[in-house]
Design goal:
alpha+beta, Nuclear Transport Factor 2, Chain: A, Beta-lactamase, 2 domains, eight-stranded antiparallel β-sheet, four-stranded antiparallel β-sheet, 18 strands, 34% helix
C-alpha cells in the first residue's frame, strides 16, 4: 500500500513528479525538467560524483520505457527524509519490480530549483517481508529478471558477467551490437569501456615505479621538461593518478574541430597542455581526463615506446586479454558494438529513438579512456591483479589504497581506481560514462566477487545494475 508524501515544498514537487511518471506523460516530464531542474552543465562542485546526472538520465530512460510498458508505475512505500527542501522515499518501480531510494532536493533560495534528483537501488523495506539475500544464486536470479526486463524495455543493451573467486557464475549478453544490421551483442563483443582505461594507465605507471624508473613524487616537469604551463608542471605523478593535479580535460572546441585526426597521446596532449589549470596542484579533487593523458605521455618518454604498445605488451598480453585495444572507429573491427544514445549533437537529452554516437566520441581512445574490451577480458584483468601476474601485491595495494575522500558516503579514490566501503565491504574498480557508453568494473575485495557490466546504450542503466549488485553482494557477505 502506498503512503502519502509530505506537504513540504520538496514533498509537493516530488509528488507532482511521481504523478507525471505514473501517467506516462513524457512531454510533461520534459517540461518539468526544463522548468525546475538546475542547468546540468553549470559549474558544480568538482567533488560531485556525477550520480545526480546519471540518475536523471535513468529516470528519463524509464519514462521513455513507459511507451513499451504502461504498467511501469512508481509506488511510494516509505518516507525516509522529510525536510522543507529535501524529501527521500523508498518506492517500487513497475518496470522490473525493483525497489529504489528516490531523493529530491531543492535550492533553499528562490526560485527553489531542483539541485538533486538521485536514485539508487534499495532492498525491500523490512515491514514488507523480504530479507537480505542468503546466497549469490538468489542475487543472480533477481539480477536475471531485473536486467532482462530493462533489456526488453530497450533501456539496457550489452553484456554482464559475474564471477566468484575468479570463476564465472553468470554471463549473458542483451540487445543489439548494431541496430542497423540487427547484429546481437555477445559475451565476447567488444564494447567501448570509457574511463576504465584509466586503470590500465595506472597499472603501467605502477609497473615503472616497481622497476625504479619513476617515483610517485616525481613531477610532470621531471619527465616532460617541455610541458608548456609552469603552473601545472610541478603537479606530481601521485596527484595525476588520484585527480589532485587540478588539470582539466581535452573535451573542448579544439577537440571538436580535430576529432577525426586525434590518434596519438601527443594529439590528445596538445588539445589542453596550454590551458590554465582549474586548481593549483594538490588543492582539491577534480576529475581529470587530461591528467591521465599526461601519465600516458610520461610512460612514452620513460620507455621510448608508444603508449598503445606499452599497455598491450605489459597488461593485455600477460593477462590474456585478446579482445582489448584502442580500436580506430574508422576501421573495420569484427564484433565491435556501436553506441546508441538519447543525447543530441548539442549535448541535450531527448526522448524517443536512439541515435548512434559515432560522430560524438573519439576516433581512437587513449590513456584517459575510450578503448574497447569484453566482459571476459576484464575478468582476466581482475584475475591478473589478484594473482600478481602484472603487478606485485605491494603495488596492487598501493593502487587500491584510498587517497582522497569524495562526496558520497564511503566513496574514495586511489590511483586510477574508485574505492568504496559498502555495508562494511570494500569494492574497487572504475566506471565509464559517455553518451552511448556505460561500463562498470567492480572487484569485491572481501567477498571475492567480480562484476563487469558493459553497455552500448546511455550509461545510467549500467550504473543502476552495478548498484543493484553492490547492495546485495555486500549485504550477502556482511
Amino acid at each position: 500500500m502506498s503512503v502519502p508524501l509530505p506537504d513540504s515544498r520538496a514533498g509537493t514537487m516530488l509528488r507532482s513528479l511521481i504523478e507525471m511518471f505514473n501517467r506516462g506523460d513524457v512531454e510533461a516530464f520534459q517540461r518539468w525538467l526544463d522548468d525546475h531542474y538546475a542547468d546540468p552543465y553549470a559549474d558544480k562542485d568538482p567533488q560531485d560524483d556525477r550520480a545526480v546526472w546519471n540518475s536523471m538520465d535513468y529516470t528519463t530512460a524509464l519514462l521513455d520505457a513507459l511507451r513499451f510498458d504502461h504498467a511501469c508505475g512508481l509506488t511510494v512505500y516509505q518516507v525516509e527524509v522529510d525536510l522543507p527542501y529535501e524529501t527521500a522515499v523508498i518506492a517500487q518501480l513497475g518496470l522490473a519490480g525493483e525497489w529504489v531510494y528516490l531523493k529530491l532536493k531543492l535550492a533553499p533560495e528562490a526560485p527553489h530549483a531542483v539541485i538533486e534528483l538521485r536514485t539508487r537501488p534499495a532492498l525491500l523495506p523490512p515491514q514488507i517481508g523480504e530479507g537480505v539475500p542468503t546466497s549469490h544464486e538468489e542475487v543472480i536470479r533477481g539480477l536475471h529478471r531485473f536486467v532482462g526486463r530493462l533489456a526488453e524495455a530497450d533501456i539496457f543493451a550489452g553484456a554482464v558477467l559475474i564471477a566468484k573467486d575468479g570463476l564465472p557464475v553468470f554471463q549473458r549478453a542483451y540487445g543489439l551490437a548494431s541496430r542497423e544490421f540487427n547484429a546481437p551483442n555477445r559475451i565476447d563483443t567488444k564494447f567501448n569501456i570509457g574511463s576504465l582505461n584509466k586503470m590500465f594507465t595506472a597499472v603501467a605507471i605502477a609497473q615503472l615505479a616497481e622497476e625504479g624508473a619513476l617515483l610517485y613524487s616525481d613531477t610532470i616537469a621531471d619527465h616532460l621538461p617541455g610541458y608548456p604551463r609552469e603552473d601545472a608542471a610541478h603537479a606530481t605523478i601521485d596527484q595525476l593518478l588520484c585527480h589532485m593535479s587540478g588539470i582539466g580535460s581535452y573535451w573542448n572546441d579544439q577537440f571538436e574541430c580535430e576529432r577525426a585526426r586525434i590518434r596519438t597521446v601527443s594529439d590528445f596532449l596538445r588539445l589542453f597542455a596550454t590551458d590554465l589549470p582549474y586548481y593549483p596542484p594538490g588543492k582539491r579533487w577534480f576529475y581529470s581526463n587530461g591528467g591521465f593523458v599526461i601519465l600516458g605521455a610520461i610512460l612514452e618518454t620513460i620507455t621510448g615506446q608508444d603508449y598503445y604498445d606499452i599497455v598491450r605488451e605489459r597488461i593485455y598480453q600477460p593477462s590474456g586479454m585478446t579482445g582489448t585495444d584502442a580500436y580506430e572507429m574508422d576501421r573495420s573491427v569484427p564484433n565491435l558494438a556501436i553506441g546508441y544514445t538519447h543525447v543530441t549533437p548539442d549535448g541535450l537529452r531527448e526522448l524517443g529513438p536512439h541515435r548512434n554516437n559515432l560522430f560524438m566520441h573519439v576516433i581512437k581512445g587513449g590513456p584517459g579512456g575510450g578503448g574497447f574490451s569484453t566482459v571476459e577480458d576484464l575478468l582476466r584483468f581482475g584475475t591478473a591483479l589478484h594473482t600478481n601476474t602484472i603487478l606485485s601485491a605491494a603495488s596492487v595495494q598501493t593502487l587500491l589504497a584510498p587517497k582522497v575522500a569524495l562526496r558520497g558516503e564511503g566513496l574514495q579514490y586511489g590511483y586510477g581506481f574508485f574505492v568504496r566501503q559498502i555495508n562494511g565491504q570494500r569494492v574497487v574498480g572504475h566506471s565509464g560514462n559517455f553518451p552511448g557508453i556505460g561500463a562498470q568494473f567492480d572487484m569485491y575485495l572481501d567477498a571475492g566477487y567480480t562484476a563487469v557490466i558493459l553497455s552500448n546504450v546511455d550509461p545510467s542503466a549500467s550504473q543502476i545494475v552495478a548498484d543493484y549488485l553492490r547492495d546485495r553482494f555486500t549485504r550477502l557477505a556482511a
